[in-house]
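This part of the workshop introduces the protein records we will be handling. A record pairs a protein's sequence with a compact description of its fold. Comparing a sequence with its tokens is the quickest way to learn the format. To make this concrete, we reproduce a full record directly below:
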Amino acid sequence: MMKIEADRARCDGLGMCEAMAPGFFEVGDDGTVVVLDERPGEEHRQDLPAAVDSWAR
């Protein structure tokens, strides 16, 4: 099973992950990422890597 963890200290708050996977991420009130579903099902394995990779700096 996958687990999504966000490093909020590295988040720029641009909303790229939210735009790419809106059911899983959103920009919170403090301007950083909020993970909406930390343990998505295996059926989402191909959908999420691009959104997660958008965090990389």
